[in-house]
């Protein structure tokens, strides 16, 4: 498709389980971002990938969170041993560069609920 | 910690009303400011990217202004329509060309027919 694709759109899981969220960016976009929005909060930066460079992981809230970007395209965000505070909407965005002037294109998000 | 503040948190207007809301941010290290529109169950959609003090941008009935010296941006909607109902997010790029975006919590606009 033409836009950023995320799956699943909704995920409900029990506390303590691991979850994987997938993001398929716009073809040709080298920059990929993960954000999350918890209830009542703004969008929180999690991690950023640019080409073959080392990712910027400065926003990951704990070592239970990790992300990969294979082949410079699809990215997976993994949350291990989920906690209730991980419940949020997880958004992926891509852009053709990291420049602060460049628009980021967002996916529809994954709504994660931890029971 | 850099903070991007948006006000009001929510806004209810009647169809046809004009409205505006505010994004406030630290003026130091400013590089660019983005406005996004986020409808429920959809992806955030970019509205404007603004960089220069005094910048004004317009897209249909929506316009935005930027004051980098005092650290604020206004978003205006003229003649609100029900389809304008969404959360409007502003995001600050503070770290130069390679910085990350810091998002505000958004202003949730509801337009009643």
How far apart are the first and last residues' alpha carbons of chain A, in Å?
33 Å
| Total number of helices of chain A | 0
The profile of the biggest β sheet of chain A is: 6 strands, mixed
Largest sheet of chain B: 6 strands, mixed
Helical segment count of chain B: 0
Total number of strands of chain B = 11
Helix content of chain A: under 10%
> How far is it from the N-terminal to the C-terminal residue of chain B, by CA?
40 Å
Oligomer: heterodimer
**Residue fraction in strands of chain A:** over 45%
What is the H/E order of chain A?
A: EEEEEEEEEE
Mean of all residue-level pLDDT scores of chain A: 91
Low-pLDDT sequence parts of chain A: none
Number of strands of chain A: 10
Largest chain-chain contact?
Answer: A-B, 28 and 28 residues
Strand content of chain B: over 45%
